[in-house]
Amino acid sequence: MSPGAGAQPLITGVLAAQEVAVAPATIRKWVQLGRLTPAGRQGRAQLFRLEDVFAAERAARGRS
Question: What predicted TM-score, i.e. pTM, was given to this entire model?
Fold first, then answer.
């Protein structure tokens, strides 16, 4: 594996919600439903990879 591979920064649920224009409660719901998996924690806050957030958003909106 190349250096830096997979070294994407992690973001909080609030920032994740802002990135995909949903409420933070929606991010929490996606986690509860298994559509989004936290990649880490900072204290009590769950942290997410941006690419995972975008994938969950596409899955939630693109069910046609």
Answer: 0.82
Q: In Å, how far from its chain's centre is CA 28?
A: 9
Q: Are 10 and 47 in contact (CB under 8 A)?
A: yes
CA–CA separation, 11 and 47 (whole Å): 5
User: What's the Cα-to-Cα distance from 45 to each of 1, 14, 24, 28, 58, rounded to whole Å?
Assistant: 29, 10, 12, 11, 23
For the chain, the distance separating the N- and C-terminal CA atoms, rounded to the nearest angstrom, is 37
β-bridge partners, 48: 11
Per-residue pLDDT of the chain (64 residues; tens, 9 = 90+): 445 555 778 999 999 999 999 999 999 999 999 999 999 999 999 999 999 999 999 999 885 4
